[in-house]
Amino acid sequence: MDPQRYIRDLSVRKTPKGIMRTLLVVSGDIPLHDDVVGFCEYGVAVETTDEHEGVYQISYIATALKVRGTHLGDTLLSSVIVRLRDDAWRFNRTPLVLTQVDPRNKPSMDLFTRFGFMDEGSDPDDPEYHLLSLEFTPQARGNYFGSTLAFF
């Protein structure tokens, strides 16, 4: 996926305040000519209530071809998990995140596996993709800048 094209074509959706967030990593040394080299779109898919448990989701994670092999995906995913742990701690949300991955996308499957995501098998609603899940421990936020800062 080309992060630049995705961000350019992103249509803003109306969602409750603070529910969906996108983390961007930008690279460039010429003012106004920075490139988006990676992004991760994530948020609350289902709110936690007294009646049911909620769930977070990671909708997209992508890096530009020019930064492949730099472990930017690891940096993005690590930062998102820090934010989800903090959000679950602050708002008493269920500490569970899901994502959907094409099992033929080995780099993506490997990335999520490295972070402890479990492959739950085919998504019943979209059998070409697998659901991956991660249960985590809520924790007050760490240093966001320290977990996201990367230079390319």
Automatic annotation (TrEMBL):
<dbReference type="InterPro" id="IPR016181">
    <property type="entry name" value="Acyl_CoA_acyltransferase"/>
</dbReference>
<protein>
    <submittedName>
        <fullName>Acetyltransferase, GNAT family</fullName>
    </submittedName>
</protein>
<feature type="domain" description="N-acetyltransferase">
    <location>
        <begin position="30"/>
        <end position="117"/>
    </location>
</feature>
<dbReference type="InterPro" id="IPR000182">
    <property type="entry name" value="GNAT_dom"/>
</dbReference>
<dbReference type="GO" id="GO:0016747">
    <property type="term" value="F:acyltransferase activity, transferring groups other than amino-acyl groups"/>
</dbReference>
<dbReference type="Pfam" id="PF00583">
    <property type="entry name" value="Acetyltransf_1"/>
</dbReference>
